[in-house]
Every structure is written in structure tokens, then in C-alpha cells.
Amino acid sequence: MPQRADGHALAAAVRLLSIKRLTKARLAEKLTDRGYAPDAIREALEECERRKYLDDRAFATLYVRGALDRKPVGRLVLLRNLVRNGIDEDLAAEILDEADRDEDERIDLALAKLVASRPQDGYGQLGRRLERAGFGAPSIVRALRRRAESRGPLIGADSFEELT
Fold first, then answer.
1. Which of 3, 15, 19, 59 has the highest Cβ tally under 10 A?
2. Claim to verify: residue 124 and residue 75 sit in the same structural domain
3. For 100, which DSSP code?
4. What are the residues whose beta carbons fall under 8 Å from the beta carbon of 140, sequence distance 6 or more?
5. Contact at 8 Å (CB) between 137 and 131?
């Protein structure tokens, strides 16, 4: 595929960013797919960053907030999705560290929803479901302990003590 003229890479980048928020890596990928030269892509990305059209930190922060507003999910799922979207793993971890202050609240909300929708599930099943939602084992154990201490055992379910 012949490479496109360099002057149009910035216009294409701005057009893509006007449609959807993208990470630097995703925008570079899209411009590459459209046949722009590597130097033109680099210059377009630098100019978009200079103009504040492109900001991976803002993308990651908004992504995490949006994901958590829609559904309580754990750190592991969020980290995987951020990295998949082209966010540097260190930056993703930093953003998630800021969001982790609310993890106990998120996991308690997720647990309450699970208990309400699946009252027959025992602590073991609930723990596995929370794990699939991306919560880590220490957070799951703390949430299940809080639930057991405040509300006692689940009706007709296995004992929480079997998990520990």
C-alpha cells in the first residue's frame, strides 16, 4: 500500500479523535492502517498531544470512571482492559491505585447485587463470581467476611469458613 501524504496525517488524527476518544497507541494504529508514513504519524501524535487532543492519562481516568459507573468490576479486569486499549501498564496501575480507594465499596455493591440476583448461591459461588468480575482474592475474602459478620450465613448455602 502506498503511503499517504504527510500533511494529511494530522487532519486524519483530529477527525478520528472527534469521533471517539482514543489512546496514543490506538490512534497510531489507526493512522498506520490508513497508510500514513511513520514520521507523519509521529508528528501528528505530537501535535495532538501538544494541543491536548490526546491524553492517555485522561483516557484511562475516564475509562475507569465510566466502567465503574456501569458495573462494579475489579482491578484486574480494569488493568487488562486499559492495557488492551494501549495504555502503558505503569500508567494504568497508577490510575487504578487512585481508584482503589473505593474498591471495598465496589466489591460490597457487587456482592449485594449477586446475593439479590442469586440468593441460592453460597459463599464459594459468590467468591468465584467476584473473582470473574476482576476482584482480587484479598478483597473478596474481606467482603465475604464483612457480609458474614453483618448478616450471618446465607440461607441454605455453604459456610464462609470453608473458603478460608
1. 59
2. yes
3. G
4. 107, 127, 130, 131
5. yes
Asked whether residue 1 is assigned to any structural domain, the reply reads no
Alpha-carbon dihedral angle through residues 23, 25, 26, 28, given to the nearest 10 degrees? 120
Largest CA distance in the chain: 69
How many other β-carbons are positioned within 10 Å of the β-carbon of residue 63?
A: 19
Domain that holds residue 75: 55-164
46 in the same domain as 93: no
CB under 8 Å to 32, separation ≥6 — which residues?
38, 41
Q: CA-CA distance, 148 to 142, in Å (whole number)?
A: 10
Over residues 102-138, the pLDDT tens digits come to: 778 888 888 988 888 988 888 889 999 999 888 888 8
Residue 71 DSSP class: S
Number of domains composing the chain: 2
Same domain, 29 and 66: no
The reply to whether the predicted model has a pTM over 0.85 is no
User: Is residue 4 helix, strand or coil?
Assistant: strand
